[in-house]
Structure formats: C-alpha cells, structure tokens
Write a structure and sequence with these properties.
The chain is built from 13 helices and 12 strands. The chain has 329 residues and is an alpha/beta fold. It is globular and about 70 Å long. The structure holds adenosine-5'-triphosphate and nickel (II) ion. It is a peripheral membrane protein.
Length: 329
C-alpha cells in the first residue's frame, strides 16, 4: 500500500501570555492508503492537535514547523482555496463531541441533507432524491430515518444517535482519509462498543484510510492496523497493532497496557510533565523505572526495533524482554 499522508518532523508551539510553549516535538509518522492508524495516549499528550494540524484547524496562537504531505503535496503550503478542495472531500473529519459539533438549531435531517447536497457529484438532485439518500445513510447507520426522525433537533436525540449522525456526515464525502477524534469519549460502555463496531463496518465499506484518535486501547486494538503511542507531544512507539499491544517496547506503552482493566488496572506512577516545565533528556524519564543518566541528559532517538516497529527509548531491548507476549483486551 502506498503512503497517503506523511507527517515529517512536525513541531507545534503555542503562544500563551507571551510565552512560547512547545507542545509537539518532532512528530513524524505515515499513514498508508486504506489503513487504520490509531493514535493513543493520555489526556493532553497532543493527539487532537496533531489531527487538527492535518486539518489546518489550529488556532491563531499556534506556530507550526515541519511538513504534512498528502499524496506528496504539502498541505501546510497550500492556499486556503487549494486546501478547501481537499478538506471535507478527500480528507474528512468526525469531531470529538456530538454535543458541540452539530448545529443545535437545525433539524438533523436538514443538516445531513445539506451535507449530501454539498458533496453530490451529480449536482441538482431534487429534494425528494436528497431525502431518500439521507434515509439510506441513516438506515446504514441503523438510525430510524423517515420524516419523524429527520425532523428531530440534536437535543431531541440520545448522545449515541448524535454520534451516529456525525459519523454519517464524515463519510458522506467518501473521503480517502478520515480523521476520527475520540468518537467514543462521551459514550458509555455499550454505546462505545457499538460505535467502534460501526466504525469498523464503515471502514470496510468505505475503504478509506483512518486516523483514529483515542484513549481506548481496546478500541485501538479492535480497529487499527497500526498504533502510534504519543506521550507528552512525542510519538514514543509506533508499529503493527498486535505487536504494540502484545509486545510493547516502550516503558510508557507497557504502563498503559498494565493500566487496562483486563491487565489488572495497575495505575502508572507519576504524571505527564507540564509542557511549561519540560526537563532535558527523555520526556518519560521522571516516571521510568529503566532510567539511567543518559535518559536525563539526552533525548532518545526513534529506533527501528523490528520492521515497521519503532521506539523512542534507549533501553527498548531490555524493556521488550520484560514484556512477554500476552493476549489482552
Ligand atoms: N489553543 C491552545 N493554546 C495553548 N495550548 C493548547 C491549545 N490547544 C491545545 N493546547 C495544549 O496542547 C496540549 C495537547 O492538547 P490536545 O488537545 O492535543 O491533547 P489530547 O491528547 O487530544 O488530549 P485529550 O485526550 O484530552 O483530548 C495540551 O496540553 C493542551 O493544553
Ligand atoms: Ni483530544
């Protein structure tokens, strides 16, 4: 499979109160055509800002360097007009929160209908045809459809239903790349499972590549071909999903897996450092049991430890020895 998206040495700083806060640090990763790459890591580690950098949705106080190439063309240097041709068509997004992402004053049928109309290659369909398409999409997402359902405002639907409506709007353009940010965050366990299963089905149908941003390792394992683990603004491990989950090679990935309910809920000690008080060397060093003097002084390079599996740790070899292959989730 060819490379669809390539992030090369992405650095992101935010200006806050005239201070420059360095958030993303040398983030590099690739997304291949039709693959699902899950991006996991604890809250505040930089998952959403990475997705937003691709979508050019960063706020004005953001300063970005590096390259983001989509099919070889640099997104960051495209004009707004050029990028608009990509976003929402070739590159689409399913946002994090159904509560704030749907227009509260517009009936859901109308919102999805507008989206169908905008993306319709055969322009000029009449309203009846559009409504039929909307109902078709709703039924594919196991939503009731029909006039009664279409007339609902978002607040009249459950969170799970709103989430499905949002998912429908992400897939209408038939994108090549879908960026899905934490689609299960607001949902309880049953709805979360349903949403992940639905996403897997749609992915099969749509055959698009997906960047799936999540806290949920179980969901990542279920959906993803590869997993990128982020910690404090950096990718610390990336590789095939089964390898990352079953034989993690970074101490942070091991900690994340050990903290899963299925692995005994062992909470990792310490906290992610604040971006405003970063120390030199490895950003995980203050929590790491493999810590040596080298880790405090020098930032570890990203080392390829097996084909397609890279780890940002001086001690990955010893760490990997401890992991053992276990099934989880
Ligand atoms: N506009 C902004 N100005 C300053 N800092 C910001 C801004 N947006 C995000 N950040 C900071 O960037 C860091 C990364 O945020 P991001 O939203 O990407 O985290 P995340 O990994 O998606 O977390 P979560 O899992 O909670 O969604 C956080 O420390 C956040 O506070
Ligand atoms: Ni986020």
């Amino acid at each position: 499979m060819g490379v669809l998206l390539q992030i090369r040495d992405l650095n992101l700083d935010f200006m806050v109160d005239k201070k420059r806060i360095h958030v993303l640090n040398h983030v590099s990763l690739e997304l291949y055509e039709r693959e699902v790459l899950a991006v996991i890591g604890e809250t505040g580690c930089g998952k959403s800002v990475t997705g937003n950098a691709i979508l050019r949705l960063l706020p004005d106080n953001a300063m970005v360097s590096g390259n983001i190439l989509y099919k070889g063309a640099d997104i960051s240097s495209m004009s707004d007009q050029e990028f608009r041709l990509l976003r929402g068509k070739e590159i689409a997004a399913i946002p994090q929160s159904p509560g704030t992402s749907l227009n509260p004053l517009m009936r859901v049928g109308l919102q999805v209908g507008e989206c169908v109309r905008e993306n319709d290659r055969k322009k000029g369909r009449d309203s009846k045809e559009i409504l039929m398409k909307v109902d078709g999409i709703f039924s594919r997402l196991r939503l009731p459809g029909g006039a009664g359902f279409r007339k609902n405002f978002p607040c009249e639907l459950s969170v799970g239903m709103c989430q499905r409506v949002l998912i429908s709007m992400g897939i209408i353009p038939n994108p090549n790349l879908l960026i899905v940010d934490e689609p299960t965050k607001a949902l309880d366990w049953t709805l979360r499972k349903e949403a992940v299963e639905l996403m897997a089905e749609l992915r099969e149908e749509a055959k698009c590549a997906m960047m799936f941003i999540t806290h949920d390792l179980g969901a990542a394992k279920y959906l993803a071909d590869r997993i990128a683990v982020m910690y404090c603004g950096e990718v610390v491990e990336i590789g095939p999903a089964a390898q990352v989950i079953n034989t993690p090679r970074h101490p942070y990935t091991q900690g994340l897996i050990a903290s899963m309910p299925a692995r005994g809920f062992k909470v990792m000690k310490g906290f992610m450092p604040s971006f405003q008080e970063l120390h030199s060397g490895c950003r995980f060093s203050n929590r790491c049991e493999w810590l040596t003097g080298q880790c405090r002084e020098t930032e570890p390079p990203m080392a390829e430890t097996a084909r397609g599996h890279a780890v940002k740790c001086f001690h990955w070899n010893r760490v990997a020895g401890r992991a053992g292959a276990k099934e989880c989730c």
